[in-house]
Amino acid sequence: MEVINALGINVTVGSCTLNLVSVGAPGVESLGMLDATVLANNTHTTGLPTTLKRVPDISFTAKFVPSDMAGIIAEINTNQAITFDYSGIGAGTYGTDTVWGFLSSFVPNEASFGEDVWEATGTIMVTNQNGSFVETPPSYS
């Protein structure tokens, strides 16, 4: 896949490096609160934060040409290391994030007259387990 990336961020999913228009970075969120209410509570329910964290789905928009689709389809639902490389952003050193997950969707948008490259929206889902099904949290470096 040809890479002409004005964002300076490269996202590599298997054999595909996405030609990004926009992308979210891997984030983190809590799984919420556990109910800790007991019969001794008088006025309010009580709770405890969970200890587990989740990486939300990562959405992106990318440019592509129809000949890229075979390679993209091959990466759908394949659990693998996915790399977010921020080294192309300005003069800073922003590092690399790596998550284990899969390309969940890649949906082409409508093309307009005169366009030689299309755009598509997609989603990466983070599994946090490597190819051997071992829990592997994201790496931020």
Could you write a compact summary of the structure shown?
The chain is mostly beta strands. The chain contains one helix and eleven strands, in the order βββββββαββββ. It has a single domain (10-140), classed as Pnp Oxidase, Chain A (Roll), CATH 2.30.110.
Strand order of the largest sheet: 1-2-7-10-9-8
Largest sheet: 6 strands, antiparallel, barrel
How many individual helices? 1
CATH first level: Mainly Beta
- What structural class is derived from the secondary structure elements? mainly beta
Please give the radius of gyration in angstroms: 19 Å
CATH architecture: Roll
Low-confidence stretches: none
Write up this protein.
The chain has one helix spanning 69-75, and strands at 10-13, 16-23, 29-30, 33-35, 47-49, 53-54, 58-64, 80-85, 96-108, 118-126, 139-140. It has one domain (10-140): Pnp Oxidase, Chain A. The chain starts with 9 loop residues before the first strand and ends with a strand. With 141 residues, it is mostly beta strands. 5% of the residues lie in helices and 42% in strands. The mean pLDDT is 87. The strands form 3 sheets. It has a 6-stranded antiparallel beta barrel with strand order 1-2-7-10-9-8. The longest helix has 7 residues, at 69-75.
List the helices and strands and how they pair.
Layout: E1 10-13, E2 16-23, E3 29-30, E4 33-35, E5 47-49, E6 53-54, E7 58-64, H1 69-75, E8 80-85, E9 96-108, E10 118-126, E11 139-140
Antiparallel strand pairs: 1-2, 1-8, 2-7, 3-6, 4-5, 7-10, 8-9, 9-10, 9-11
